[in-house]
Design a protein that fits this description.
Layout (H helix, E strand, L loop, with lengths): L4 H7 L6 E2 L6 H14 L9 E7 H16 L7 H9 L6 E8 H10 L7 H22 L2 E3 L9 H7 L6 E12 L20
Antiparallel strand pairs: 1-5, 2-3, 3-5, 4-5
Helix pairs in contact: 2-6, 3-4
Length: 199
């Protein structure tokens, strides 16, 4: 790793102008994703995260599903800009779907009733860490990504289209690809408003 972690934190941004230039071989991208999935922390080592990686026609199929489902709820006069936005997610290399296994979470709730109400929260926290781990690792390789949330609107259609278990709960979609345009400058609130130190 050429950059230190603080530099990587600053480099990782939402990239909306994606391209299909193959920055890394597909197997190297899968190594990044697999290692993150393997080593991401989870409550009680539950390993409840589930991932689906879509390339090619499967990648396009996902965003066709998103557009179809959006067309049912978006007003006609807004549909043009919706189509334009969704098309920005279809020009990259692929999309990662992030799921949590609801059955795993439920079994932990039953096994440890004292912590029952916390397991869904811990599950979401673990998924957030996994999303960030993958996003940061892709960014380190100059692969752009953004995080999208068209769930629960697309949940059932996605499970049917890709033959996924009903107990997999879709949480996020991450389109990724080559960076065709950098992210805009980011503004920051004064750190003093966000951080308190005692001692």
């Amino acid at each position: 790793m050429d950059k230190n972690l603080c530099e990587l934190f600053a480099q990782r941004r939402s990239i909306y102008n994606l391209g299909s230039t193959q920055i890394l071989p597909e197997e190297k991208i899968m190594d990044i994703i697999t290692n993150a999935l393997k080593f991401c922390p989870s409550a009680f080592n539950s390993q409840s995260a589930r991932l689906v990686v879509l390339y090619g026609e499967y990648y396009q199929k996902l965003w066709d599903i998103v557009l179809t489902e959006l067309s049912k709820i978006v007003p006609e006069d807004k549909m043009g800009q919706t189509i334009t936005k969704i098309k920005t997610f279809t020009t990259g290399l692929g999309t990662i779907l992030f799921f949590e296994d609801a059955d795993t979470v439920k079994s932990l709730q039953e096994k440890f009733p004292l912590y029952s109400e916390n397991f869904p929260k811990w599950s979401l926290q673990s998924s957030g860490m996994l999303q960030y781990m993958i996003w940061l690792a892709l960014s380190e390789q100059n692969i752009g990504a953004s995080l999208q949330h068209y769930n629960p609107l697309i949940d059932e259609e996605v499970k049917m289209a890709f033959d996924l278990p009903e107990h997999w709960q879709l949480l996020a979609q991450m389109p990724f690809g080559s960076i065709e345009l950098p992210a805009d400058e980011k503004s920051f609130l004064p750190i003093e408003e966000r951080l308190k130190i005692f001692g």
